[in-house]
Design a protein that fits this description.
Layout: E1 2-7, H1 13-25, E2 29-34, H2 41-50, E3 58-64, H3 69-76, E4 81-86, H4 94-101, E5 110-111, H5 117-129, H6 133-158
Parallel strand pairs: 1-2, 1-3, 3-4, 4-5
Helix pairs in contact: 1-5, 2-3, 5-6
């Protein structure tokens, strides 16, 4: 199982690293590339068209500003694409969010919050967990631990 992570610019890396951390926690291999929908459209097309044969099962596309990367990738691949809007402009990432979430019929891009890198990773894990029971079990354990952590904090505040 493998996740392909593409980002529009190297400046997106600090956010993308949080996605990589989640994938590492779950033992999921990933490949990270810098591919621009506008500056290297042929590379975006090639990546999308060859992702499946390279063993990629889910793609996370991180981009800011116009943020067309996820949509371009989704146009060329049958694989699920998760859009990760990056806060990178004077509009605080709202432009990125709207560019990613407002896709035409037939070309969906699942979209997480602005700079929602952890959720992009978790959503990729959940998608993979449909096929891989061992990943599903790790996801169940992750959810239990998350609940326990919140209950612990609540209990500490009650003392």
């Amino acid at each position: 199982m493998k996740v392909g992570i593409v980002m529009g610019s190297k400046s997106d890396l600090p956010v993308v690293e949080r996605t990589q951390k989640i994938l590492k926690e779950f033992g999921i291999d990933y490949e990270t590339r810098v591919i621009s929908a506008h500056r290297t459209p042929a590379a975006a097309e090639t990546f999308a068209k060859t992702a499946e044969e390279k063993g990629i099962e889910v793609i996370i596309a991180a981009a800011g500003k116009a943020a067309h990367l996820g949509g371009v990738i989704a146009a060329y691949t049958p694989l699920p694409v998760i859009g990760l809007p990056i806060k990178s402009s004077t509009l605080d990432g709202l432009d990125s969010l709207l560019s990613i979430v407002q896709m035409p019929k037939g070309v969906p891009v699942a979209t997480v919050a602005i700079d929602g890198a952890e959720n992009a990773g978790i959503l990729a894990v959940q998608i993979l967990s449909v096929k891989y029971p061992e990943i599903r079990e790790k996801m169940k354990a992750y959810k239990i631990k998350m609940e326990e952590d919140v209950l612990k904090i609540d209990a500490e505040m009650q003392d």
